[in-house]
Amino acid sequence: MIKIMAAVWAGISLFSFTGLLLQPSSAVPTREQRIAQAAESMRERLVGQRRDFHMHPELSNREERTSRVVAERLKALKFDEVKTGVARHGVVALLKGKHPGPIVAVRADMDALPIQEVRDVAYKSQTPGVMHACGHDVHTTVGLGVAEILSGMREEIHGTIKFIFQPAEEGPPAGEEGGAKLMVKEGALENPRPLAIFGLHTKPDVEVGQIAFQSGPSMASSDKILITLRGKKTHGAYPHEGIDAIVVAAESIMALQTVRSRRIDPTEPLVVSVGIIQGGNRFNIIADEVKLEGTMRALNEDVRQRGQLLIRETLAGVTAAHGASFELKFEENAALTYNEPKLVEETLPTLRRIVGEANVIARRPQMGAEDFAYYQRVVPGFYFFLGTGNKAKGITAAWHTPEFDVDEESLVVGTKVMSNVLLDYLDRQRAKP
């Protein structure tokens, strides 16, 4: 299948529309129109590539086939550098324009989720229990589409575009490192370092043809909460002789909800959720230990730090009241995704020009998390949302559900949008004194 897809891409590849991209301005007045026409000419191949990725999903840190397809395609496009094996299966590639200039990066994630797909479609996942339920097949396909278009425009590019195809955005398996944090650790943003980075994500509740964005905080930080509550085991008939860890857990869960409702400024978003409770080993024995796992999400680093402190204080109070004890650990799942306001402001005219002003929609920040934030800790970044829903066609299922799908028109839209975003950014940087 890999060879088939490579042949499909190569069949109408670089040489088939390089001439189109480089036509005189009298034939195609603007660069934007040439990009649009090139993206339209790739429509069938974009759909075919996305469906190939969708049928062959791979879990976090296991993206061997996907990364191989990506690397082979970039090499076929004669990229100046294609580095593989970054953060296990990441691919980092450089496309250098004919003319020197600034450096910009674009990121696409590649991993799938442990979900059994239920839809009966021709491109249904062929891997039991694994599917692209978050649209990373779209992200990777759009990334390759942008790579093909821009590789055909080298002669007019002033600068360098760094393409980052990332594994494990959904989080590495237990005991493993991975994702954007490891990509940064292994130098994905170095040699050379870009001035800025862009990324996009599917959005099923935004109609295809539209773009949603936030300026400033975009997606929440996410910390995993690991709690162990310890009491004293005893016979169920004599609870007074023990310390019931299950009762302590119940009170702790309820008390943790007051961290948000009574201890944090109501205008500052914070979510504390408990998703796992494990305790007890027999119906007539008072449990001496209960483990809780959950998450804390915030849109402000000060609130995040205060939330952690208040969770610790709350557990200390509840356990002290019962004569119990506790252990508490926080594990950072993702930092705050923060879109640099100036970068957003400078990019919005491009987005509005490509999809229309009415189709660029400002949205409130989301409490979901995204590890794109780790790139933004190093360089300014803008992460926006590509509309992939279509209510008329019934394409409305949410992320991480077995019914998830996208309107494939979004592949062409995303390819056009990101190609223009990257080139316009390079133009703006060159124009600065």
Structural summary, described in words:
With 433 residues, the chain is α/β, with parallel strands linked by helices. It folds into 2 domains: 315 residues, Zn peptidases (Aminopeptidase), CATH 3.40.630; 113 residues, Alpha-Beta Plaits (2-Layer Sandwich), CATH 3.30.70. The protein has 12 helices and 16 strands. The strands form 4 sheets. It has an 8-stranded mixed β-sheet with strand order 1-2-4-3-5-16-6-15, sandwiched between helices. A 4-stranded antiparallel β-sheet has the order 10-12-8-13, with helices on one face. Helix 6 links the parallel strand 3 and strand 4. Helix 1 runs parallel beside helix 5, helix 3 runs antiparallel to helix 12 and helix 10 crosses helix 12. The longest helix is centred in the last third of the chain and has 23 residues. It is elongated and about 85 Å long. 47% of the residues are buried.
Which short descriptors sum up this protein?
Aminopeptidase, 433 residues, single chain, four-stranded antiparallel sheet, elongated, Alpha-Beta Plaits
Question: Short description, anyone?
Answer:
The chain has helices at residues 2-11, 14-21, 31-41, 43-55, 64-76, 136-151, 179-185, 245-263, 301-322, 341-355, 373-376, 409-431, and strands spanning 81-86, 90-96, 99-109, 158-166, 196-207, 211-213, 216-219, 221-230, 234-235, 270-279, 285-286, 289-298, 325-334, 337-339, 360-362, 381-389. It is α/β, with parallel strands linked by helices.
